[in-house]
Amino acid sequence: MAGALLKIDNVSAGYHGQDVLRGLSLTVEEGNLVAIVGPNGHGKTTLLRAISGLLRLTGGSIQLGERRIDRLRPDQIVAAGVVHVPQGDMLFPEMTVLENLQMGAYLPSASAGMAQRLEEVYTLLPKLKERHHQVASTLSGGERRMVGIGRGLMADARLLLLDEPSLGLAPIIIDQIYEVISALRASGRTILLVEESAARVADKADRIHLLDHGEFVWSGAGPELMARPEILATYLGG
């Protein structure tokens, strides 16, 4: 039986002396997809930034497997197996799709198996193989988002952090992105996903945590959340 891959214990973090996260605790089991939902501006992205080392904690600890990682540099956290796919595209616009993907395997630990992982990415995202020599700036929004996810996979992640992968995309493209995420989940990858819409993840996540003003106000299974209209109305506007 798989155990906990990520353990967040009583974590606080923020900006300019003001905590955005206030004593959060969270466990992500290996092979699970866990979703963080909640209103914009209430700490979801801040939590991912804290996990990936882009933001230092003011309290608590973060552990990956048996190793504490919150005191490591961001590059050391990547090397430990945590890959953060941020909001938006964040690509190198004048590089090709292939070159962007190869940038995901820049660490020595990832470069050794780069060719094999590239084929795995192309199998999962066949559109990227069709576009592998195309410059990133000429891709559609959905294609750019897929390149971002593919680049994250090239790093051979143990834990994949996805920050609002549907942001700014048309509904039909969002469906395609979530088909990819479902395939990743089915392949056994461990994913921590941030999303504003609970409906998009209700039938995909093993567990959902509702974050409001830097604190978890509800946790449970997706169907349970969708059956609580008072919670949806209070925190998610629907």
TrEMBL record:
Keyword Membrane applies: no
Protein's organism: Hypericibacter terrae
Domain ABC transporter residues, every copy: 6-238
Membership in a protein family: Belongs to the ABC transporter superfamily.
SMART domains with a match to the protein in the record: AAA
InterPro entries, alphabetized: AAA+_ATPase, ABC_transporter-like_ATP-bd, ABC_transporter-like_CS, BCAA_Transport_ATP-bd_LivF, P-loop_NTPase
Source organism phylogeny: Bacteria, Pseudomonadati, Pseudomonadota, Alphaproteobacteria, Rhodospirillales
SUPFAM superfamilies in alphabetical order: P-loop containing nucleoside triphosphate hydrolases
Gene Ontology terms, MF aspect: ATP binding; ATP hydrolysis activity; branched-chain amino acid transmembrane transporter activity
Keyword ATP-binding on entry: yes
UniProt-recorded name of the protein: ABC transporter ATP-binding protein
Keywords: Amino-acid transport, ATP-binding, Nucleotide-binding, Transport
Annotated GO biological process: L-amino acid transport
